[in-house]
Amino acid sequence: MTRGGYILIFxxxxxxxxxxIYATSEEIVVAVSIEGLAPLVWEIGGDYVRIVTILPSGxxxxxYNLEPSVIEKAVxxxxxxxxGHIGWEESLVEAVSERTxxxxxxxxxxxxTDVENLTxxxxxxxxxxxxxxxxxxxxxxxxxxxxxxxxxxxxxxxEYFERRFESFRRKIDKLWSELKRAGEEAGLYGESVVxxxxxxxxVVVAAxxxxxxxxxxEAGVGVKPTVIEDARRGLLEGRYAAIFIS
Length: 246
Known about the structure:
- The protein is of the alpha/beta class.
- The protein has helices at about 40-45, 70-75, 85-100, 105, 110-115, 135-155, 160-185, 200-205, 225-235, and strands at about 5-10, 30, 50-55, 80, 110, 120-125, 125-130, 190-195, 210-215, 245.
- Helices cover about 40% and strands about 15% of the residues.
- About 35% of the residues are buried.
């Protein structure tokens, strides 16, 4: 197989390897808007958090409409963690704020407005907000803010959350080094590659590669024939070194 035709299947493994099965008297209920945010909560909260996922299983997040039962789930939580780039997320937080009489900033964490120094990758001429939390430096900064939020909910557990965060930061540093090494060993460091979905951009860039083309730029939109043709020709001509599919 030629270098241009080389296809690498890249699986994005979640950081979450296990979940706590222990209940504690100081349990913090954290509602996450989408399942992909849950690993971050577990890494910082450990045995003291119970994670509730708002989006029903199997539902495409960008096409979802809020339901009363979902708002009820969020009302019962201590903290609502959202990605910030899906329309119904902010509506959910506002609805809970109205129901509980608590300030939006007190009950929620939105990295796009609450976390500084985040890095974003441009795709299709705009800022890519899909999966930005999996980029190693972003994960660390969001984890730091989660530590602060959880500590404000349970001040007595502040030292525990700080220790969890430091452990998480070390894991991320190691993961980032391994990603870079994988890119170098594959001979792809500094090369342009094709990705299937926008979120994959944060993995390939972390591994030292550049995003040359994206097959599906928007949720719910199929692959355009012109994009497929560009990817095919780019691989044959050597403009793109590989295709990454998760």
